[in-house]
Amino acid sequence: MKPLLKLYRGYANEDELIVMGHVFRPTTKEEYDFQKKHFRNARSVIRMFRIKTQHNADVFLHLNGEKIHTKTLDDGYFKFSIPLKTEDENCDGVMDVNYGWMDYRVSIEHEGKEIITKSSFVRPHRG
Fold it and tell me: What's the predicted TM-score (pTM) here?
């Protein structure tokens, strides 16, 4: 089984891009058996909904040809907070992002394979 990469809706403003999510450990390989009786049945149902997070996992954000790295916290949560370039020539932003809905990818490595999840964020137009 492979870990689960859960992304939450990202957003951007004039100054920064925010992307966040969780990394969950792989679930058990056992399939749920509906034929089990009483306590074994209840135990199987409870075990299906117990999910643990993966701490200190490497997470990568892929956007506009760049790959940015972070690690998950103890609770499996990660957050990218990336400064954006502005029209000011003296800005220290690292990424140029257009206005509107933009797609991005987040990936993790597991047993030599890359697990990728796609999502989108919005950067509203000036109003």
Answer: 0.77
